[in-house]
């Protein structure tokens, strides 16, 4: 059976709301993407770095409840990482991290290669695990579509110039990139997102997508097309996990269009504008549902219906 592999951090979000109330819930961008894919009916493995403590048990229960297969190796951290998330009245969020990241070399792999491998966020920027992630992408490039979302966290990933070098290395390896307008503003201040997407797609990817918050999203394809969609109007509770729900929808949409797998790279690079537009339209719906409820709670197929 075709399956996806998501590589990256799973952690606990300690959410501090505007009214001062707090809540601890499972999170981490790659983990959210894995859960989002599973809720859309996909078979998903998550390779992560989770402790044997109570927070780790909370993560294990959370991902299992959505059908994600959490795969780990013989080593694991002494405690599970935590991100304190401060929500603001303008619906934005700030993050403070207490974490480390690594990827055990002996994590359990299936006998068959995944159709798609996704990674991003802290897992691709924080050592020692970041180098292990890059090695895994190289391992799977011959068999799998590679997708990447920088999903940057300035408070932990380091100076923008150094992070940009890491991002650029991953751009040339990935087939599909999703990046937020906010990330681009931090990485490349003052540059037009559409022009950045065009420059990035010329470096090798088949598709570069930029999310624009309440303004929707745009995509630039390897064939030179630019596609833009608007976001549906919705009452925003908070924006936690919205970009991850979008990313899950992007992978799922390409999957449904039979554009995933290394052997489908030519078809992915030649994807029709109409197909890309349909996929993006569904992605912004997924993100809109997510922001309409608290926390990283990506939609199921039933929610979409």
Task: State the gist of this model.
With 305 residues, the chain is of the alpha/beta class.
- By DSSP, the count of extended strands is 13
Shape: globular
The ordered string of helix (H) and strand (E) elements is: EEEHEHEEEEHEHHEHHEEEHHHH
Question: How many helix segments?
Answer: 11
Average pLDDT reading: 93
Return the structural class: alpha/beta
Helix content: 25-40%
Unreliable spans are none
Strand fraction equals: 15-25%
Largest sheet: 9 strands, mixed
Write out the strand line-up for the largest beta sheet, numbering strands in chain order: 5-4-1-8-9-10-11-12-13
Q: In angstroms, what separates the terminal alpha carbons?
A: 25 Å
The Rg value, from CA coordinates, equals 18 Å
Structure overview:
This protein has 305 residues and is an alpha/beta fold. The longest helix is centred in the C-terminal third of the chain and has 19 residues. It is globular and about 50 Å long.
